[in-house]
Input
Amino acid sequence: MIGTSVLIAFTIFVAFAILLLDRLKFLVPFKQHLFHNFGTDIGLFTLLLFLNLFAVLFTFFRRYRLKQTGQKLIHLDKQVKTGQSALSREIAEKYEE
Output
């Protein structure tokens, strides 16, 4: 879940950076002046933007992709207790030792 969130956040972030670089072509002559005076602010803003994007995606995946995990685990627990699956036999053999 963390890896997926990082991958998607990075993809969106790079797409946003490419869009901004395309739109801000008129600032190229002032590049050295801008980075000299505002480089730390720009870096801090980009870091915060990436972290916020990651947090939103992580929250989204946690809320909507793990929604039915409890129901799946209840189903698996019932199968193990009744002995209806091969998994339950493997677990029983492991705990007998």
Remarks:
- The chain has four helices and no strands.
- The chain has a mean pLDDT of 84.
- Residues 31-64 form the longest helix (34 residues).
- Residues 68-97 form one domain.
